[in-house]
Amino acid sequence: MAEPPQTDVSRPSALPTAKLLQRNTAIQSLVDQNSDQYLDAIEEEWNKKLDIEMDTLVDGMVDIVSLASIGEKDKFRIAQESFQAQSRAESMIRAANSLLSITHSLKLLLLLSDEAQIAHRRDAELRQVHQEKEEAKRKVAALLDDILRPPHRHTP
Predict the structure, then answer these.
(1) What pLDDT sits at residue 25?
(2) What's the domain of life for this entry (predicted)?
(3) What does the pLDDT read at residue 60?
(4) What is the pTM of this model?
(5) What pLDDT is stored for residue 87 in this prediction?
(6) Residue 113 burial by CB count (10 A; 0-12/13-18/19+): exposed, middle or buried?
(7) How many CA atoms lie within 13 A of 28 on its CB side?
(8) Cα 32 to chain centroid, rounded
(9) d(CA 42, CA 137)
(10) Beta carbons of 79 and 47 less than 8 angstroms apart
(11) Which of 12, 57, 107, 154 is deepest in the core (most CB within 10 A)?
């Protein structure tokens, strides 16, 4: 009997239950944190990401500068240093792109979570709407007075 053909179709299988329980405890520990602890943990996570990417950039620059030594070199040594410089430059480009992504994410967080500015704009607009409403009420009252008040006739 021939073996069944091999395909790249995924075959569903049961998930191990032991990992589900571990996830629940991790979620529960996040829920148990107060707001300050949660924000401190998030800040620490962002700082770690930034430190890793900055270290990559600094180490890459140090390595590239050390590879740029001038001296008698054979073709093999030149090719080897060229390859090392190119691979370091690629890792530095990835780190720079990651820093750009982090910067973009932080900008979005700032824009989307700037509650004080949003509340200030909302309150200013609410005050303006109330003023417009009061002004409209005065105009309506004046128009109603003009309509409902009998005309005054001067009798000689």
Answers:
(1) 54
(2) Eukaryota
(3) 92
(4) 0.50
(5) 92
(6) exposed
(7) 6
(8) 24
(9) 50
(10) no
(11) 57
Q: What is the DSSP string of the chain?
A: -PPPPP-------PPPHHHHHHHHHHHHHHHHS-HHHHHHHHHHHHHHHHHHHHHHHHHHHHHHHHHT--S---HHHHHHHHHHHHHHHHHHHHHHHHHHHHHHHHHHHHHHS-HHHHHHHHHHHHHHHHHHHHHHHHHHHHHHHHHHSPPP----
Angle among Cα 116, 48, 84 to the nearest 5 degrees reads 135
Name residue 120's amino acid. Answer: H
CA 117, CA 1: separation in Å to the nearest integer? 72
Report in angstroms the alpha-carbon separations of 122 from 102, 111, 112, 117, 129: 29, 15, 15, 8, 10
Residue 143 is encoded by which pair of tokens? Answer: 């128009």
User: How many other CB atoms are there within 10 angstroms of residue 60's CB atom?
Assistant: 21
pLDDT score at 86? 93
